[in-house]
Specification:
Largest sheet: 3 strands, antiparallel
Structural class: mainly alpha
Number of helices: 18
Strand content: 5-15%
Radius of gyration: 35 Å
CATH class of the largest domain: Mainly Alpha
Shape: rod-shaped
Number of strands: 5
CATH architecture of the largest domain: Orthogonal Bundle
Order of helices and strands: EEHHHHHHHHHHHEEEHHHHHHH
């Protein structure tokens, strides 16, 4: 009887022992050790695992190396502390579910603010999974708005409320929202020393001329925001709803526009005396729900972009002109803000002569459809 030992290191080897089995087994063990140490091949394994499962086990072992934990320890811990459920929901589907859930639990105004912020972010992001939205995405969107620090914080708060909702039980669509990585400005930082940006008289005139010649459906909206100082993205829309429900005579009486507490931002009713030039604008472009609603956000953004209208630039222009002609107290009362804010941001921002020219802008027929220097 003979014993044949076969093994491979870098080349095939073979030895034959005629009588001594023990020596043959010893050589076999030596060769196997040599092969293992040289890492020239994978160790033979007797297992019921598939090759893919075996590879995953080896990867898990490597991740645990140096931790003092075994694979069994890691699995046991995972079973006791399962991760939050993962979701394939899109950002758009998730935020619409959030709005439906909030409806009836918060005020209509709060719901509108949430819908405005989330829908604008959804448009900016495009089709994207909920779990794929990052703090960098949200920061890029906030920067694209070119808004002030206070508005930044308000938008951030709305987006944060949504992501917190998605991470809570029973949903747990994500482990943790990305809002923590988005900058938040402390109250002292939101009181910026920078003066608000406004339109010049020349740019205001060019804007209204362009609207009359090209987008007349927008004239009422811009005229009311510029000359009466109503907040474009809140009070103007609510006034449109109120007029549609109750009729214009309840709110426009003589030369004064009466805003109820449900319309104003600060929830305090206020009268707004309309300047003579605005009354002439409204005679030609009536104060109707259709005129105040005008068109879509995209159209509004396009017009603002064409003329470089800053964020809240329409209202800033109106307040500046009121302060120049009527003083701080009158401007604060009729614009629904505080004298402290007026003194800090709007005092001496426009001269009396410029304010008089501003309130002298009247509707008329124009020969040119575009202002000078504006591309068609």
């Amino acid at each position: 009887m003979t014993y044949r030992v076969t093994g491979t290191i870098c080349k095939h080897q073979r030895r034959i022992f005629t009588t001594d089995q023990e020596e043959a087994l010893g050589i076999q063990a030596d060769w196997e050790l040599e092969r293992t140490l040289s890492a020239a091949a994978i160790r033979p394994k007797a297992t019921r695992l598939k090759q893919e499962e075996l590879s995953q086990a080896e990867a898990a072992f490597e991740m645990l190396r140096g931790t003092g934990l075994t694979i069994v320890d890691a699995v046991r811990h995972l079973l006791r502390n399962p991760p939050a459920n993962r979701t394939e929901k899109t950002f758009e589907d998730a935020y619409k579910a959030f709005l439906r859930d909030r409806e009836g639990h918060i005020s209509a105004r709060q719901l509108d603010n949430l819908k405005s912020a989330l829908s604008r972010l959804a448009t900016f992001l495009g089709p994207v999974g909920l779990a794929d939205v990052t703090a960098e995405n949200i920061t890029a969107w906030l920067r694209s708005l070119a808004c002030g620090k206070k508005s930044w914080n308000l938008y951030r708060s709305s987006i944060g409320a949504f992501f917190n909702w998605t991470a809570k039980e029973p949903r747990q669509w994500i482990d943790k929202g990305p809002i923590g990585g988005v900058d938040f400005y402390r109250k002292s930082e939101t009181l910026s020393d920078e003066l608000p940006e406004r339109l010049t008289v020349e740019k205001t005139r060019d804007l209204l001329e362009y609207l009359q010649a090209n987008n007349p459906q927008w004239v009422t909206f811009f005229a009311v925001a510029l000359f009466a100082g109503l907040r474009p993205e809140g009070e103007v829309t609510k006034l449109a709803d109120a007029i549609e429900r109750d009729g214009v005579d309840r709110y426009l009486r003589g030369g004064t526009l009466y805003l109820t507490a449900k319309i104003t931002k600060d929830r305090r009713a206020r009268p707004v005396p309309l300047p003579d030039n605005l009354l002439e604008w409204l005679a030609q472009y009536p104060l109707t729900p259709e005129g105040l609603r005008a068109g879509s956000r995209d159209e509004y953004a396009s017009i603002r972009g064409r003329f470089g209208v800053p964020h809240d630039g329409l209202r800033h222009t109106s307040v500046s002109a009121w302060v120049a002609l009527h003083g701080v107290s009158e401007a604060a009362y009729h614009h629904g803000t505080s004298e402290r804010v007026i003194r800090a941001h709007y005092l001496s921002l426009m001269k009396c002569e410029e304010a008089e020219a501003f309130y002298s802008i009247l509707p008329s027929e124009f020969q040119s459809a575009l202002p000078t220097g504006t591309e068609s």
